[in-house]
Design brief:
Blueprint lengths: L7 H21 L11 E8 L5 H11 L5 E4 L5 E5 L4 H14 L4 E9 L1 H29 L6 H30 L5 H31 L5 H33 L5 H31 L10 H11 L1
Helix pairs in contact: 1-5, 1-8, 2-3, 4-5, 4-6, 5-6, 5-8, 6-7, 6-8, 7-8
Amino acid sequence: MFDFVGKRFWFFLLSAIVIIPGLISLGFFGLKTGIDFKAGSSMTLHFSTAVNETQLRSELNNIGYKDAVVQHTSSDDFIVKLEAIDSAQNVALMAALNTDLKTTTEQKDFASISASVASQTARNAVIAVIVAAVGILLYITFAFRKMPNPLRWGTCAVIAMIHDVLVVVGIFSILGWLAGVEIDALFITGMLTVVGYSVHDTIVVFDRIRENLSKGGGGNFENVVNSSILQTMTRSLNTSLTVLFVLLSLFVLGGPTIHYFTLVLLVGVITGTYSSVANASQLLVVWENKEWGRFVSWIPGLAKKKAASQA
C-alpha cells in the first residue's frame, strides 16, 4: 500500500515550488486586466481583404491607439482592445481603417466599459471569492460537526481551496507578463468554478475519512487518512480525467472568447484534484500530530531556538 501520508511534506514542497513563482510574478507584475476591470473598449473586426496582425497593429498606432491589443482568431477575425472610445470615435476609427488599409471593415461587435463599472466589477470579484471561502468554511464545519474539532476540517478545505486559487492566479500572472494574457469577467467565473470543484473533491476524501473513523478501523489517524485516499483515488481520477478530456476539446476547438476561460478550468481541475489528496487531507494529519513546527524547522535561527528550548 503506497504511503501518501508519509510523503506529506514532499507534497507541500511541490505545492510551494508551483506557487512561489506565481506569487513573485504577482508581486512584481500583478495580473494583466482586460476591459472588464479597467475602462476601455473592445471590438471584433473582419476585413474583406487579407490583413495581418502587424499591419493592423501598426495602423492603430498611426491613428493614435498606441496601446491597442490585437488578437487574430481562427475565423480570420481580429479582436481589438483599446482605450475607451465613444460612438463618434468608433465611426472615425472604422473610416480610417477602411481608407488606410484599402479594405472594407465589418465590425461584428463593440463593447465599452466605464471606469466606475470596471472598478465595481473588480471589487465584486474579490467579494465573491471571500464570500465563497467563508461559506465553504461554515458548511464543512457544520457537515462534520459530529467529528472532533469540526472547524479543523473546514479550515483544511479552505486552505486547499486557497492553494488552488493561488496556482491559477499565479499562472495567469506569469502568462500576462510573458504572453500578454488578460483576465476578464469569465476569469472570475472560471475561478469560482474551480473553487467549487476543489471543495467537491476534498469533501469526497473527507467523507471517506469520516466513514472509516466511525467504523473504528484502520489503526491510527495517519493510516485511516492514507487508506481513505487510496479508496477514493480511482473515483477522483476517473472524474477528473473525464472533465479534462472535455476541457481539452474545448481548449483546442473552442472559439477565442472562451479560450482562457477553458484554460482556467483546465489548470483548476488539475490542481483541485491534487490538493484534495496532497494538501487538504495531509493538513488534517499535520494538525492531528501537531506538526506545524516542521514547516519552519529548516530556518536556521528557528531550528537553533527550538533545539535550545528542548535542551
